[in-house]
Amino acid sequence: MSAAAIETWHATRSAALAVVDQAPRFEEVWFDGVDDMLSEARARLNRLSPRAAYQAVLWRQAVIVDVRPAAQRALQGEVDPRLHPLVVERVDLEWRLDPRSRERLPQAAYDLPVIVLDAEGTTSSLAAESLQRLGLADATDVVGGFGAWRRHGMPVA
């Protein structure tokens, strides 16, 4: 490497470091822990009981989206397939339901009422709020998740 190239590299590096030093720090904390974050997400949702969720799906007023990983579904059971649940693991949810995404499901639409279902009703609250931020205003979740769904006698497979 020539002396001029080394000098240019050092100058470029120094300039880049100066920009980094001026960048805002992520010292501002938005939530007082995950419980506060969950409470704020839930404040935006019209959460449903297992029975209300079942009725909405049964009457085709909403689609249920099971975000549990495959291992959890295998262990705990699944929503009865006659209810046509969408199975979209949490890690893929936004990409599959954002109408603008190239990886979206055919059902993805802003006016699609989505009921997110997880194991206990915690991850689903954060997921439903995330869908609302993407423009799916009617996204919500099931209080108590799949565990409550099963305990309340909703159809499972």
Instruction: Count up the helices.
Output: 7
Find the count of extended strands (DSSP E, 2+ residues). 4
Radius of gyration: 22 Å
Order of helices and strands: HHHEHEHEHEH
- Identify low-pLDDT runs: none
The amount of helix comes to 40-55%
Within the largest sheet, what's the order of strands? 2-1-3-4
The assigned structural class equals: alpha/beta
Describe the main β-sheet briefly.
4 strands, parallel
End-to-end CA span: 66 Å
Strand content: 5-15%
Which overall shape is indicated by the principal axes computed on the Cα atoms? elongated
Mean pLDDT: 91
Explained architecture:
- There is one protein chain.
- With 157 residues, the protein is α/β, with parallel strands linked by helices.
- The protein is built from seven helices and four strands; from the N terminus they run H-H-H-E-H-E-H-E-H-E-H.
- Strands 2-1-3-4 form a four-stranded parallel beta sheet, sandwiched between helices.
- Helix 2 (34-43) crosses helix 6.
- The protein is elongated and about 75 Å long.
- The model has no long low-confidence stretch (mean pLDDT 91).
